[in-house]
């Protein structure tokens, strides 16, 4: 037991090495920029002060979002997704996989769970002993199930998921802007040192190296930022980009996409004043999500929805809007949502429905009983 405990402690300590490296680089860049560039190299006070103000604004936002990403504990499934005591005892005693699935299906009837394994089974974590909510995955490094898990990032030594994904995207954005500010303000002195227009001083090495490091970091971070902004626009996680979530009608990478504006609001919130700040403003609770079923015809949709007790709203001919309900919030899918050739876009809702709205053509209502599997 002692060697195992010591090994875990060593592993946890080593996991902080990338974070320490980032902080050392940022600390050195601060010294090189403030002291070597602004104090010793720039002769004009107005230029020096303006550079320092801009630099510290972007540095503060970068550090704020970075440490919010690190210290935000990953959100895990609530106790409602755990097996009740009786079902848990039955599940643990049972050795046959098909019977275990029947037990999980019985429990999942009362939960907002619509995704499955590749084989169509209920997603269950034996380690955490919970039915996995949609988009939830187990992280072997954090040793826990993480809601809307995107990936485990070694550079923040934390899982990136529902609780801190907005902070992570802002961290990448402000890190890119921090590098841009350095490159844009250092380049003229970089050229002067490179062409020997300025005398060789102890500041030369710092300024030359500062420009190269900032440029390299900018290129690498920008590519990662671009990828995650694309994921935000598609309402996908990194895991879902590689392996689409599986619904009752099969895998569908666009199953959670509601159009660009709705997808962005799900991560950044519906109040623009909070978008640029690393404060939590993401929509929902991380346990359930508005879901679309795409590439299925109405007859197939009817069969699916009769099985899970949910509502479909098919757009009437010539209409561009589809009513979407979920997380106890009514939303309207915008005109820019994706449509496939000759296929209906289906909105799956898990909330109550206004019965007066059922008179329009192509709208169908099923009972509000929990889904059956």
What does this structure look like?
Helices cover 46% and strands 12% of the residues. Helix 2 packs across helix 7 and helix 4 (85-93) runs antiparallel to helix 5. The strands form seven sheets. Strands 1-2 form a two-stranded antiparallel ribbon. A two-stranded antiparallel ribbon has the order 3-4. Strands 5-6 form a two-stranded antiparallel sheet. Among the domains are: 14-74 and 156-210; 79-154, no CATH class. It has ten helices and 14 strands.
Compute the separation of the termini in Å. Answer: 43 Å
| Residues in helix, % | 40-55%
Shape type: elongated
Number of strands: 14
Rg over C-alpha atoms, rounded to the nearest angstrom? 26 Å
SSE string: HHHHHEEEEEEHHHEEHEHEEEEE
Mean pLDDT: 81
| Beta-strand residue fraction | 5-15%
Strands side by side in the biggest sheet? 1-2
Sheet bearing the most strands, described? Answer: 2 strands, antiparallel
Class by helix and strand content? alpha+beta
* Number of helical elements: 10
Pick out the low-confidence regions: 294-373
